[in-house]
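Narrative summary of target 7.
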Amino acid sequence: MSDNYEKKIREINQRLKDYYGEPERPTDQSGIDYLVETILSQNTNDINRDKAFNQLKEKYSSWEKVENAERDELIDTIRVAGLGPTKAERIQKSLRIVREDQGKYSLEFIDEMKVEEAKKWLTDIPGIGPKTAAIILCFYFGKPVMPVDTHVHRISQRLGLIPEGTSREKAHEILEERVPNDLIYEFHILLIYHGRKHCKAQHATCCEGPLADLCSNCGEISYDDELRV
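Modeled conformation, tokenized:
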């Protein structure tokens, strides 16, 4: 990792932390909880994801019952998160794959895997993409994996941390290389805060936030030549 990138990212992280406060640490959930929750989070907001997850946990007393639930009943239970038929199918398939592979509903075996091996195992599950895998590995296992959602992807381009037009999948690779391991979780969370508050896709107010002098969206780029990727 370039020293200039590390310096710039640490500066951005500190500015965001000073502005938004210390990010909350990941909630104390099981690996399977994270797996199911991140499937529910696809193409919806946190509020509806949490409602669907809580309804799921209230309705079913075990993951075995979720796996074997009537599909229509499961769809209705998680309907608030949207894409009910797709998410219900993905949840049940994921639970079945884990159970058949491990003999139980647990992802603890992943902790012994190398990062790339763990990513491959998770993304081999239908419906589990790089972002979902990264969230599980970063939030639950504390591995140096950088989740890239729409906010992280957009802001990283505007700050010159990844090239303009970089795909979401490629962005995972670049940011994992450039973001210091000790910052990955909080940098991810802080970029999400900033994307929701100021650096929006449309009607952005970046110039009112803590990174105005670094953001290409404000037309006042000041990062070093090496950062002009």
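DSSP finds eleven helices and no strands in the chain.
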